[in-house]
Amino acid sequence: MLKSLSIDNFRGIKHLKIGNFSRVNIFVGGNGSGKTSVLEALAVLASPGDPHMLSKLAMWRDMGPMNSQIDYPLRSFFFELNAGREITLSAVTDAGTQRLAITGLQVNISQPNGAESSLAMSGVISQGVNGPVSSSGRIEESSGADVSNLAGVSYQFVDEIGETATATASLIPMGLQGMVRTVRRGLGVFYIQGRRANSIAETAEAITRITESGDEEEFLRIIRAIEPRCRSVQVGLLGGQPILFADVGKMKRLSISLLGDGFCRACLIATGLVAAAPKITIVDDIDAGLHHTVMENFWRAILRICHRRDMQLFCSSHSDEMLRAAVTALTESPDDLKLFRIDKSQDGHVSAENYDFIHAQTASNNGIEVR
Amino acid sequence: MTSASTRSYTPKLDKPVLLLVEGANAFYFLKSLFLSRPEFHDIFAYDFGSISQLKLQMETIAKAPSFRRFTKAVGVVRDAELDPSSAIDSIRGAYRSAGMSEPKVDGCVLPGSPATGFFLFPGNGGSGCLENACLGAYRNQPELDCAKGFLICAGRAARNANWQAKAVVHALIAISDKPEMTLGESARAGLWDPTVPELAAAEKFLKELCNSAKPQAGGELKY
């Protein structure tokens, strides 16, 4: 179990420490307060050295392409876009402390004494603009000054027993390419971005795995929180493309796209929880597409699977109804719920206000503002 | 202003003075008698229900974003009951638990961020309850004597002083033009004289609280 998280120089967060995590952790706060950044930091830490995570997070933020010509999406992970400041993410788990440092790699284009063009790194491993460069690169420690030409990032991950692993990822014409060395497996994460209602191919693949492993009932339990009539969700092919059909007691099975955003999103969340079986599931805007009448059952279904599989859920929400539903659904296991409000002050300082169950319940029952 | 019994939305604590009031009776009583006046426009009154809820609700309110943004002074109004020092302890404990300065034991408003203070009915200086203050503020002495006599006649004169005060107040409301009124409604109907010392003390406390929330709050009242 993840107990606390510390973030330095990530996105808009210079420094933030959040503690006392529980089984279900809900982040609330105003627009631009940093909720999504906290979730992203968690995702990056839980998948250390995986360049795909950075690429996906940038893509889901609609940052545009990330490649050797355009470093902005990668630079945006660094506080104040300054890739000379090392990103540090650390977490306390049941087993100890994990720490991930991400350093910007810079192309040094200056050529003193007419020497051969070299690469100056703010990190530990040399990297070229168009891909990894081995011995020709020159290693330089970051002085904290901005990295003007970001060529990639290096990761250094230290696990709970103090073992260190490193990896690098370079910006190449096609994107961010990883050169993973000996990165130890992190906590494992499944991340569902707020605007991402459904990816049919991904969901179809996950449902195939669920069917193969015989976990359909567990999957359907979450779906039925949204659509109680659902008997099954099956994968088919139409014109060579995967399609998902649901049996909701009609004469014919319906494409899940016809059953609404809430159903599609529940499919995505359920497949993440059941098929991916990560230690950590992250859902940005968990209330997206959900009607208030199904929220309580949805929380109960999620809590049940989190317990059964020893998983933690980290999510954000803008909905008062979703918070009230969580409080009601978790009344019998109050220690499983933590609520955090992320605040950003006028000077840009990000802080977290921690609500345990009793305060979340008091706020919910008395209409006291939380968000 | 808002009351726990009537809240169906999330109230925004967008005024500089937050007044936490024990129960709907005291809440509507203060609202009718004082809080509707323009001089108390800066007060956001909040009914926290029973005293057992004060600590938890104060802690939760202190976490609210609008509290941090707007609130400059926090006051608590409750009954002294039979043991005023115990009532004061509970209030000070709630402030402490919510991370605010504990007000002085004499009830004077303590400047700070936020300023804190409390008022105990009947008059911030002894045991009793809101209804005791009402009895002191009743305008028709013969009727008051008659209502007190009613308790003797009914064989209930031996019960504790708080109970007796509540019973007499409701007997007085029962002989008014609208016997179905609540205590709060009776205040709006003008049954109680707000200038008597007990209620004047409550008004003084409210003014002091408002003054403490002003940017250049000084020792003297500005009203």
Keywords:
heterodimer; A: 371 residues; alpha+beta; Rossmann fold; 2 domains; 6-stranded mixed sheet; 9 helices; B: 223 residues; alpha/beta; 4-stranded parallel sheet; 44% helix; 12% strand; disordered C terminus
Describe this structure as you would to a colleague.
The complex is a heterodimer of chains A (371) and B (223). With 371 residues, chain A is an alpha+beta fold. Chain A is built from nine helices and 16 strands. Chain A has a seven-stranded antiparallel beta sheet with strand order 2-1-4-5-6-7-8, with helices on one face. In chain A, strands 9-13-14-3-15-16 form a six-stranded mixed beta sheet, sandwiched between helices. In chain A, strands 10-11-12 form a three-stranded antiparallel beta sheet, with helices on one face. With 223 residues, chain B is of the alpha/beta class. Chain B has two domains: 129 residues, Rossmann fold, CATH 3.40.50; 59 residues, no CATH class. Chain B contains nine helices and four strands, in the order βαβααβαβααααα. In chain B, α2 packs parallel to α4, α5 crosses α7 and α6 packs across α7. The longest helix of chain B is centred in the C-terminal third of the chain and has 16 residues. The C terminus of chain B is likely disordered. Chains A and B meet through α9 of A and α2 and α3 of B.
